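Subject: mismatched residue count in predicted assembly?

I count 1341 residues in my input, but I want to confirm that the predicted structure covers every chain. Input:
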Amino acid sequence: MASANDSKWQKDAADQNFDYMFKLLIIGNSSVGKTSFLFRYADDSFTSAFVSTVGIDFKVKTVFRQDKRVKLQIWDTAGQERYPTITTAYYRGAMGFLLMYDITNEESFNAVQDWCTQIKTYSWDNAQVVLVGNKCDLEDERVVSTERGKQLADQLGLEFFETSAKENINVKAVFERLVDIICDKMSESLDADPTLVNNTTKSTRLTENPNMNSSGCSC
Amino acid sequence: MSLSGEDMDNPPRRTSSKDSAIVDDEADVFEITDFTTASEWERFIARLEEILHEWKLVNHEPRPPAMKNQYANGTWAEKTEEVIFADFRFMFSYLYLTTTETSSQEISKSKREDQEEVDEEHKTPTVYLDIMNFDNDFPSRAHYLCRWYGLQEFFTLIPVSEKQVIDSESRAKLLLSSASVAFGNSNCSIPVFIQLQQKWRKLFTGTSLVRGGSIEFEMSHLKRLPPQYCHLAGLLDVFKSKLGCVYISMPTVSVAVRFTYKLQDWIESAWPQMPPDFSSFCDGEVGYGDIDFLPFGACTDPISELHLSCTWPCLSEDMIVENSMYSDLDPLQAPQWTVRLQMTEDPQCLLGVFLRDFLKLCERHESTDEVLKKVIGDGDAEKDKAASDISNALHKLTEPVPSLSSIPSISNVMSSASARIKFKPEDAPIPDSLLDKILYFLFPDAKIPRSSTDQKMNKNKQSSSTSTSSLSSPVSEHESDLGEVKANGEKMAELNAELAKQLKSAPVDSLTQRLGLALCKVNHSFGGLLGVAHLWQEFILEMRFRWENKHFLSDIEKGAPNMGSCLLHQKLQMLNCCIECKVKRESVGYGYGPDSVNIHDQSFDSSYDDRDSSARASKVASIVSSSDDDEEFFDADDDEVAKASAQGEKNSEGKTNKGAESGQTDMKGSTEPSEESQGRDSVVSADGQFQDSITHRPVGRLVPMKNVFLLATGEQLYIPVTQEPSPMTEDMLEEHAEVLAKLGTSAEGSQIRARMQSACLVSDMESFKAANPGCILEDFVRWYSPRDYVVDDDVEAEEEVEMEQEQQSAGSDTPATGERKGSVSSPAKRGRLSQRMQIPGNMWVEAWQSAKAVSARRQKRLFDDTKEAEKVLHYLASMKPAEVVLHLMPCVIHAAIIKLVEEAINTCVPNSKSMIDTLISRAAKVTRNFPLDKKKYAELLRLIELAETVTARTTSLRSKFTSDHLASPEQEGKEEEIESFVNNLLTQSEVAVKGGACGPAGAIIHKMFITAQKSNNMILDDEEQDGEGGAAPTPTPTILTLGEDRRNRRKNSNLSLPSPSSESKSTALSDFPAPCAREYILRAMVPRPAPYSKVLPQRMYCLLMESDNRIAGAFTSDTTFQ
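Triage response: the counts match. Full output below for your records.
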C-alpha cells in the first residue's frame, strides 16, 4: 500500500494532525544498531557512531495508510543489561516491537529468545513483533546466517527482515510491514471502535488504542 | 404550472453573464411544464415507481420457491424509504428473503434451460409459488405477513405517525389503486400491503398484479368469531363461499393445522433456586470467608411458559373432521410436535443485581468525609473529638518519621482506629463486630496479635502464608467441593490463567480483589454508600498503619507494580515497595542519606535495642568474613568461583547468621535475598565509612568480576552494589513518558532526555568508582556495556575461546551476581573504547567525569520511599467512594466472571464456550481502557447478567426435564436424547420433538401437561385413582363451582372445543388444556372468478385465539377470462 504513497511518506513528522497513533518500540542488545536504524528511518541519515542511548529516546514519523494519517511514535531503548528493568515498563503501551539483533554478533542473536520472553511478559498479547537482523552490509563479518534468522523467526512466529541502516536496506520495509500487521490486527479485533480514531485528544498521549493501558490519575 | 416556469427562470439569471446566451436557450426549454406530476396522487405514484427503479425491482424476475424451513432459518432483509401522499407520511418497505448467491444462480441457470421452452409469458410468478408452498407453513420466526400469506417478498406501506391512521375504506382503496398503478407501470408482481387501522391490530389490505391475473389480500380481525366458524368445518365453508364456486368440480382443499398448548404451571419442579441469605454472615453463623461469596442465579423462574405446538401438515379436507361436536385432532396423534419456551422477562439475577448496585455508587459525588460526616449529629461532642482526630491524622501526614513505640499491636490499632471514626457505636453503618470480621477477611495476617518483639517473626510467617494462599485460589477450593468432573477443574484452571492474563485487574484472592468483594458486600447488605465510605476509611487507616509500622501488605505480590494490573492494585504494590525499601533501609541500620542515618540511629536506640545489638554483632562477624570472602574468590578454581559467585548471597547469609546467632536469625530470615547481600555490604561500607575521608578505601562491593582486573592498577574489578531503579505505577510512568515526549524529537531534546534519565547511570558510576579505587571509564564500560570495549585484534581470537568457556561456566549473568560474558580475561588485555564512547563530550564521558566515588548506600536515594508512600496514601485518601468503586470494578468483574464460568461449566450450559470467550474479550477491552468508563462497565454488567440468565435458564430447564417424578422405565437410556433436546431448546427458538408424543421428550412433556391439568382442576392423585372420596377430602362446594365455572366458560367460549379425549371420558379431565391458539391454512387450486377462468392458487390462513381471531385470505382471479 505504501509504495503508491511514497511521496507522502516524507510528510512533516512533527505534524500533530493524525488519525491514528501507533507506539512502537525498538529493542535488542546493546550496539546492534537500534539508534542508527531509527535515525535512518526517521531522518534518513546515518552516522557510524551514535552516543549509546541512555534510558529511552524517541522519534516521530507520520505515514499514510489507506488515506489515513498514522503517526508513529518510535521509542528507542538502551540495550545494556542494566536497562530492561527500566524499559520494560514501557512495553505495556506499545503496539509494535522491532526486535533487533546484529548479524555480526552471535550473542545478540542468542538473546533474541530472552527479549521475546520479555515482550510476552510485559506487553499485552496483541502487540506485534518483527524480528530484524541488522548490519547486513557487513557480509564479511557475518556470524548469523540468514537461514538461522529465518528459522528463529518461524519458531517464534515473527516476521523476519535483514536490514542495513548504513546502506538503507529494508529499513522502510520493516516499518511498513509492522504498521500493516498492526492495522490488520486492529481491524480484525476491534470492530472499528470509535475511540480508536484520534483527532481531538492531545497528541502527547502515548497511545489512543483502547486496548492499551494509558493512565493519568483521575482524581 | 406557470409558477414552476418562473422558478426555473430565476436561477440561470444569477449565473455569470458569459453564459447568458446559453441560459436563455435553456430557459426556453424549461418552459415546458410537466403536467403528469401535477396532483399529489400522481406525484405519489411517480415516487413509488422511482423507488422501485432505485431498488431495481422493475421487471422483476420470478424467484424460486423457498426451500424447506428457509423462512425461519434464512436471513431476511429490508429496504425502506419514506414517501408522502399529501400530508400523510408513509414508510414504504421492501422485505425479502435473501437467497444465497450460489443457490439462486444454480436455480436461475436451471431455469434458463427451462426457459428455452417456457417463454416469458408462462413463467409462474413467485407469489403463486409462495401461496402454494407447503414447505414453510408455520415458520418458527418470520414477519407476520410472511407467516399469514407464505410470501418470501413483499412491500408494506405503513403510516409513519401513530396518529395518522387509514381508517376509511375510500382512503384504503385510493392507496391500493395508487400502488396498483405504480406496480403495474413497473411490471412488478411483488405483493404490496397497506396497513389499516391502528398499528397494533396488524390489519392489512394488499394486492398483487400478475400477468394475466391479480391477487387480493384480504384480512379480517375480530375479537370474537361466530361459534359456527370456530372450527375447521366452519372455516372451510368460509373459504369455499369466498371462492364463489359452488359447482360440483370443486377440488379438495388441502389443510394444514397447528394447535398450540400452553404450559404455565411447573408443578413438580418448582424453581429450585433459593435466594441466598444475605444476612447470614453478620449473625456470625457463617464464617467471614463468606464475604467473598458472590450470589448467583435468578430469583424467579427464568422460564415462564412452555408452548407445545402440534402440527398436522398437508391434510386433505376429506381426511379429517373437526366440528362443534367432534374432532379428529388429538394432540397425541399429531405427526409433528414442536416446543418453544417463553422466558421470564426479568428474572432478577442475583449476581447482576449485586454488581449493578455496586456500580450505581459511581454516580455519587460525595467524598468519603462528606458521607461520613452526615452521620454525625450536629453540635455533638463527638464531632469535636472527630475534628481533633482529623487534625491528628493530618499531623501524621506531615510527620517525617513515625514513632513506633507508641503503637504496640495491630489489634490495638484496629480498635483505636474504629474509635477514631466519628461514629457512636449505634450510628456506625457497619457494626464493630462485623467490621472486625471484614478487616480480618481483608488482612488475614492481622489475626495473630503481635507484640513489637515478635513482629518480625509474624512477618516471616505472613510472607510464607501469602505465597500459599495465592496459590490456592477460592475457585479451586470451591471446585474441589463440587468435585464433579475433573475435566471441569482443568477447564477452570485454564480459564483462570487466561483471565489473569487478559483482564487488567488484580490477582485472584489478592488484597485488592478481596477489598472489591468486601465493599460490594458492604454496599449490598450494610448501609450502601455509607458502609462503603466507612470501610474505605478503615482500609486507608490500615494502609497508613502498615506503612508506618513496616508491615507488608499481605496478598499483594512483591516487586515493582505490575502494569498488567489495575491502577489501584499498582498503588498498593507501590506501597509495598516503599515498605520493603523502608524495612531494608532500617534493618541495615543506615539510610542512604546522612539525615536518615541520624534518625535511624535514634530509632534504634529507642525501640530496637535487641536488634541493634545483633546488628552490631553481625557487623563484627562479617568484617572478618568479608575479607575471607575475597580471598576465597581469588584462590578458588573456576568452577568454585562460578558457584560461589552465583550463590554469593547464600554464602553471605550463612556467614552472617553464623556470626550473629542471637536474635539475628529472626531478622535475617525475613529479608529478601538481595537484601542479604546488601546487608553484608552495609557492614563493609560501615567499615569503610570511618576511613572514607582519610583514604579512598573500596566500599559497596558486591562480587568480584571474574578474571577482570582494573586496567590502570591491575587490581581485581568488583561489581558494585547499585541502587535499584525506582518502581513506577502506570500513571507515574505515563507522566514521565509525557514529559520525555514533550521535549520533541530534536537533537537537543534527545540530549535533555538522556540527561534526565542519567541519574541511574551516574549512580551506577559512582558506586563503581567507590568499589574500585583507581578505576577508569574503560573499566566501567567493560562491566556495564562490554561491547563498547573493543579488544585489540591480536588477542581477539584467543579471547573468543575463553569467552565460550565463560559462557558455559557462568551460571547467571545478571549484573548483580554473575560475570560478564565477553569480558577480558587477563589483566594485560589491551583494548580501547568503542567509537561511540569516544565521541568527545558524550553523555557517558561527561557522567563519568562528574561522578564521585560514593557507594550506593551513601548516594542520594533514587527512590524516595517516604515520599512515594505518602503520595500513595494521599492518593487513596483523596479518592471518593465513587472512584473507589470504579477503580475496583475490574477486580469485581474478574471475580464475577470466575463465578459465572464456574457455574456455567458446572451446569453445562450449551455454547458456554463462545459466551465466555465473548465475555472475556469484552472484559479485557473494558478493563484495559483508561480512563475507566462506568458506562462501559454497565454494558459489561449487562453481558454478565445475560450470561447469568442463560445459566439460570439451563438449570431451570434441566431440572424440569430430569425431575424424579418424570423418570420411568421407558426413559432409561434416553437421557442423551433428552439432554440434546434440552440443549436445543436453550439455543433455538423452536425445537421439534423427535417422535412427537411417543418420543422420550414428548412423553415427558405429556406428563407435564397432565400434572398441570390435574393441579389446575384441583384433582388429587388418589382421588382419581380411588374414584371414591373416602380418604381424599370430599370436594368442597367451592371447588365444585369452580369446576363448573370452568366447564361453563369453556362451553361459552367460542374457542374451547371439547377435546377428543375429554369427549370420550366425558367426566374425566383431558390431558391437555384447551389450545391457546389454533392455526389453519386452507389451500386450493380453483378457477376464479368464472368457471372458465384459469385455475389459480387460493389460500386462507386462520388464527383463532382467546380474543384475537384473524382470517387472512389471498384470492387470485383471472383478469383475462373473467
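Residues 1-14, 192-219 of chain A have pLDDT under 50 and may be disordered. Marking this ticket as 'not a bug'.
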